Amino acid sequence: MPTFLTPFAELDLIRQPEQHNDPLQAFDAADEYLLRQVVADGLAEGRRVLVLNDAFGALAAGLAGHARVTSSGDSFLAALALQKNLARNGLAEDAVTFVPASATPTGPFDLVLLRVPKTLALLEEQLIRLHGQLAPGARVIAGAMIKHLPRAAGDLMEKYIGPVQASLAEKKARLLFATPVDKAAVVSPYPTRYKLDKPALEFINHANVFCREGLDIGTRAFLPHLPQGLGRARVADLGCGNGVLAIASALANPDAHYTLVDESFMAVQSAQENWRAALGEREAEFRAADGLAGQPENSLDLVLCNPPFHQQQVVGDFLAWRMFQQARHALVTGGQLWIVGNRHLGYHAKLKRLFRGVEQVAANPKFVVLKASK
């Protein structure tokens, strides 16, 4: 893998989850541009720097030891990458403080370096939370590859921080500089809510939850076909989002035990709050994690999954394939993985490589519901 050359250090960085011969690198030209700008502006010793949405720790690791760095984002895999990359480069684990996006970093911060996230709602929530957290004379600098930089990002920075100036492009990357001005505190529009008819529930969704404004069509296709009569089964909702699959299943299976897992901290936060609203104090486990990577072998009877087909801006079935492998490892012999997927993704053939039996439970013109038995 190429070395990340910064004005502060040369870093050997890896992505998460790791792939053999991964063709993608853990940094890009926008990371390089941001760190060069920090040097150009001057970074006095002891400055407090907040890094937002650092995909694999390139920015925070680059600044570690040169400033008091806090990193915050909504990806467990990004947090894991930061932890591994600090260790990989001989940097102290406590050189960077990580705050999940389900919590608010505490300032005051002298500098904010912000990678523009894919979900503009997450950007809006993060900008709103910066109110009262910026030191006098603070700078807020956002960076992105131009192809991933919507005009709305600058509009949001201007709305919540202050006047915005764009840099020239370098290596297809651009920076946005926001000058903080005094603004009144704003009540966040997040979490948002939507209602379902079956089950008749209202679901809350924090800013970075997938399909925040309404039930996604894949889950809608899955809900009528969830397995019944589970008894005391141990069930995992893998990639749980706001928890709708697990909650719908739990309402129909009062004796089953549920584990809700997602790599998004805000998804797990949403799922936990929705579970409490629907099921009160009924026991369940919630965790932000690398899928079922930490789940003991032969510890689950059933896995429900609406797998993702992208990681940040990278589209592909790597994450889904990995989730299928994790599910197989965690399931008991005879246990089942139930999934919904787009027809064109060909999950039926992929599951047959891992499971002894794969059946189509239901289908419509766009989606299939599949049951794979270990």
Report on the structure:
It contains ten helices and 20 strands. It folds into two domains: 4-178, Vaccinia Virus protein VP39 (Rossmann fold); 192-373, Vaccinia Virus protein VP39 (Rossmann fold). The longest helix is centred in the C-terminal third of the chain and has 15 residues, at 265-279. Helix content is 27%, strand content 29%. By secondary structure, it is α/β, with parallel strands linked by helices.
Task: Please sum up the structure shown.
27% of the residues lie in helices and 29% in strands. It has 374 residues and is an alpha/beta fold.
List low-pLDDT spans: 310-315
Major beta sheet summary: 7 strands, mixed
Separation of termini?
A: 36 Å
CATH superfamily of the largest domain: Vaccinia Virus protein VP39
**Cα gyration radius (Å):** 22 Å
Per DSSP, the total helix count is 10
Please give the CATH architecture of the largest domain.
3-Layer(aba) Sandwich
CATH class of the largest domain: Alpha Beta
- Percent helix, as a range, is 25-40%
What would the CATH topology of the largest domain be? Rossmann fold
Given the C-alpha coordinates, what overall shape results?
Answer: globular
Structural domains: how many: 2
Q: Could you give the order of strands across the largest sheet?
A: 5-4-3-6-7-9-8
Mean pLDDT: 93
Order of SSEs, N→C?
A: EEHEHEHEEHEHEEEEHEHEHEEEEHEHEE
Determine the structural class based on helices, strands and strand pairing: alpha/beta
Give the number of DSSP strands: 20
Notable traits:
alpha/beta; Rossmann fold; 374 residues; single chain; rRNA processing; 29% strand; RLMG; seven-stranded mixed beta sheet; 27% helix; 20 strands; RlmG_N; EC 2.1.1.174; 10 helices; 2 domains; globular
